[in-house]
Sequence to fold (327 residues):
Amino acid sequence: MSDCIVIGGGIIGMMSARMLAISGAEVTLIDQRECGKESSWAGGGIISPLYPWQYDDLTNDLSFESQAIYEALCDDLHHSSGVDPQYQKSGLLMMDEFESSEAKAWMKRYHIGYDRHVDGALFTHVASVRNPRLLQALKADIIQKGVKIVEHTQVENLITKEDRVLGVHTSKSDFLADKVITCAGAWSEQLLTLKDEIFPMKGQMIVLKAQVGEIPHVILNQGRYIIPRADGKILIGSTMEEVGFNRDIDDQTKQSLHEFAWQHVPALKNAEIEYHWSGFRPASRSGKVIVAKDESYQNLFINTGHFRNGLNMAPASANKITKLVNE
Fold:
């Protein structure tokens, strides 16, 4: 029996498990596949909401809190695991929406400025990480901190008695714990009945092979982005498709993403497409993230609905849920 069971091994689940372990809890983390191989792996790794004025206060607050500690966190994970998450503060060049009334009000409220650029607005505070490497480092780190990881195990339902959750029934066996934290992302609705529906929003992405230094900043326009990596790889994303859990990728989307890239950076027109994939963001109908104690069970906690912002909110979301668990 553990102090805490964490359901879901994405960035939210692993970061929550890390903070719970640091607080002194004995933690078991259960994932239906392999940790860090769903939405967290598939995303772009930008440590900021793309258009932050479109989100609620909690999303912005958790994002700013996470941004303040991300560089130190990546250094800690690199030191403990030997894997470099490749944190880089390259800035984000936004080519649309930054002069809207909503954007101006948001920037005034949070005291955010930008540098004028020939193509738009350069937000110099924005950084990014190589998210597959971050997840690899995080997994190694939480194992060192004593978190027990159980992979390829489907949580089928919660074991409950009156107003308490006793544990979880899985495809392999039952796991018991004093407290249960659900971080199941797009799969949350399969376990919980929530007032705010959580559903999968698929995104397709590609990665191009280019020269190191070809693009100095992340580029954002009309909801799509171009992200430079330290080794010269260029990540392009992403679509927004409400199609359930359909993982299919298609050539039309692949070519559309490539065209978006070379229209903004002509040198990428002949760049080789190395990989094309899709992932499922955990979207909520309200557009709001859920980091809270469950209303029905006194020892059940929910950390989900982060949509496109799971990675950039993960450290602060983990801190918040850990405080709720330990109250």
Observations:
- The mean pLDDT is 96.
